[in-house]
Amino acid sequence: MIDSKPWEKKNILVLTGSPRRNGNSDRMADAFIKGALSVGHEVTKFETAKKEIGGCKACKTCWSKGKPCSFRDDFDELAPLLEAADVIVFSTPLYWFGFTAQIKSAIDRMYAYIGKSCKRPLKIKESLLLVCGADDEMKIFDGIIATYKEIAHYMKWEDKGVLAVPKVNEKGDIGATDALVKAEGYGKSLSA
Ligand SMILES: Cc1cc2nc3c(=O)[nH]c(=O)nc-3n(C[C@H](O)[C@H](O)[C@H](O)COP(=O)(O)O)c2cc1C
């Protein structure tokens, strides 16, 4: 008898950070999604840069009005997706050695889910980071990778992978690298 874990269909939430549709990180997200769908997972892509999500105001009134956040904006759309997700994926270009402002605002607003007042704790168990940047040294990613790993550790998410791609700047540059094949592979790998 084969003693292996039964395959589990996962609900994957992919957050993108670039304002450039079909840009380098958007294409990495799509390649990841293609891989994940091909093995039967459910995927929702949420483009933070196409939404209006303000930064956390540190009012500390999370859940006091029945919703995770007391302020109304497109985080209202993101909150139920976060609550339904088993896996979260961040796909972002490197901006100033970190996340873009748009995806960082969405991350900051997840503050509602870490306090004692949280009414609906997240069930996310796993995470990945897909990131690209223009410069050619891998060192440029040290900051964002460290931040991502600390977030994953703090949230008790198992880090399922980091794909960091240097030397891509113009739209389409990612196509000349092996990143799309690797991103698709990460999507498929979540079946394990
Ligand atoms: C505001 C801004 C800040 C950036 N900061 C960095 C950076 O710190 N390091 C880097 O290597 N590239 C940086 N870049 C370049 C982008 O990361 C790069 O062009 C990337 O491929 C864009 O991905 P996208 O097509 O998904 O938007 C920056 C670009 C912009 C517009």
Provide structural commentary.
30% of the residues lie in helices and 18% in strands. The model has no long low-confidence stretch (mean pLDDT 96). The protein has helices at 24-38, 75-84, 101-108, 142-155, 179-189; strands at 11-16, 42-47, 87-93, 126-132, 158-165. The protein has a single domain (11-189), classed as Rossmann fold, CATH 3.40.50.360. The protein is α/β, with parallel strands linked by helices. The chain contains five helices and five strands. A five-stranded parallel sheet has the order 2-1-3-4-5, sandwiched between helices. α3 links the parallel β3 and β4. The protein binds flavin mononucleotide (FMN).
What is this entry, summarized?
By secondary structure, the chain is α/β, with parallel strands linked by helices.
Distinctive features:
alpha/beta; Rossmann fold; 5-stranded parallel beta sheet; 5 strands
| Spatial sequence of strands, sheet with the most strands | 2-1-3-4-5
Q: How many domains?
A: 1
The CATH class: Alpha Beta
Specify the CATH architecture.
Answer: 3-Layer(aba) Sandwich
The biggest sheet, with number of strands, parallel, antiparallel or mixed sense and barrel status, is:
5 strands, parallel
- How big a fraction of the residues is strand? 15-25%
Tally of helical runs: 5
Mean pLDDT: 96
Ligand kinds: flavin mononucleotide
What class do helices, strands and sheet pairing give?
A: alpha/beta
Cα radius of gyration in angstroms: 17 Å
C-alpha geometry: globular
- CATH topology assignment: Rossmann fold
* CATH superfamily heading: Flavodoxin domain
Give the total of beta strands: 5
Question: What is the straight-line distance between the termini?
Answer: 18 Å
The helix/strand order is: EHEHEHEHEH
